[in-house]
Amino acid sequence: MKAENVMSVRATLDALRQGDITSYDLTKACLQRLEALNGCLHAFLTPTPELALRQADEADRKYAAWRQDPSIELPPLLGLPMAIKDVLAQSGVRCTCGSKILENFIPPYTATSVERLLRAGVVTVGKTNTDEFAMGSSTENSAYGPTHNPWNLECVPGGSSGGSAAAVAARIVPAALGTDTGGSVRQPAAFCGVTGLKTTYGRVSRYGLVAYGSSLDTVGVLAQSAEDAALILPHIAGRDPRDATSMDLPVPSVRLDQASVQGLRVGVPKEYFIDGIQPEVEQGVRAAIEAYRQMGAQIVEISLPNTAYALPVYYLIAPAEASANLARYDGIRFGPREEGERMWEMFFNTRGKRFGAEVKRRIMLGTYALSAGYYDAYYGQAQKVRTLIKHDFESAFNEVDVIAAPVAPTTAFRIGQHSGSPLEMYLEDIFTLPANLAGVPGIAFPVGFDSQGLPVSMQLMGPHFREDALLRAAHAYQQATDWHLQIPEGLDRKDNQ
Ligand code: GLN
Q1: How far lies 230's CA from each of 177, 237, 253, 333, in Å?
Q2: Which residue has the CA at smallest separation from atom 10 of ligand 1?
Q3: Interval between CA 432 and ligand 1 midpoint (Å)
Q4: For a 10 Å CB count at each end of the chain, is N or C smaller?
């Protein structure tokens, strides 16, 4: 199947309803494309073809019944194939989190976000590659090997939801779930030229999302466009009694038909246009901001003065939470065990052999930041500065409706480019971390290409629970431009080989 045959979410659902295509045929085509491309992309860790075809069959039966009796209510996403990041549990399907410590772990329960998609009729084609426990910005920290960027196979797809982003960019599936703790939906979306929606903390239940940084973790959507992300969002969002931080707020179904940005106040924070940013990224983002101005938006220069502290604050808080969350992987409760003479040796062997270098680094950083005598100086201090960063956003949103900024300082970098230096890798996150620390939503989408032919993207950030404003603003841009419709060339030659 050719890339252009994999339609948008909107077109897929229309075609299914009209009976132009069956979910079975569509799913089969997605699975064939997955199989043809996974060798070079390595976007999927665990394809689930039998399960997907069973779900598709079931969807087709429901469509047939509905054709007999149109009063039957159809699930809203019936028959739509999607991919799921491998940190979200799906009952009966291997969930590795990109780690050898969960090799062959089969969860007996399903994440609420996935459960809701299944109830909405989605067909799940498989689990996508991720940095180990979502710790990374390139998918190179996956214990099962990196994912490759569909635009250039020598480049990273970003991370940690790199598998989901690559799967959507390569048009294997119309949409996928990812997670964003410090940029992991937005940055891979940016590197792969797709649209990535990071939801407000508390918008989507974290139940069944394997915890990394519990006060930062969010579930989000990767899709071809803001319109498609808007179609998925209402079906994963909402209160869930199994996650006390999920909010009991109505989930607006986002109406995009008259998405105008006339009068929209777009803030441009000066702290996001700094030395060291790749000139083509800055130019691309500035050109997109200019496009907003021409569409009637009002551009306002703003300041988020504590932006520079987001990186050190995040790299204390996230590892601190991770060190506690990952204590449960001890060889007893989950996954495989490495034997030892005594119990503590078994712990030591299991964790020593089965966690990767980056995960161990974070556990050590976090344990140190939380330890007696250092807690106040590191973790305590970081929490205080986090509050200041949150206040920066609150005051900015008194003046503007959305904030426009680059997603990352560069376009996709080469596999191995930062592998010698954790700090260089962490610096890739400077523009995405603040939204997570403040808990606000963000959306990344392509606004051009660099001279290497790699996507350049920008992000819009909005006030808490204003995903609708972001989706509308991104949709307005996508109505006026066609960057989001570009498809990586050359993959189909691989497909045909
Ligand atoms: N790159 C960041 C990290 O390594 C963010 C990852 C994420 O959002 N899961 O922690």
Answers
A1: 13, 11, 8, 38
A2: 135
A3: 9
A4: C
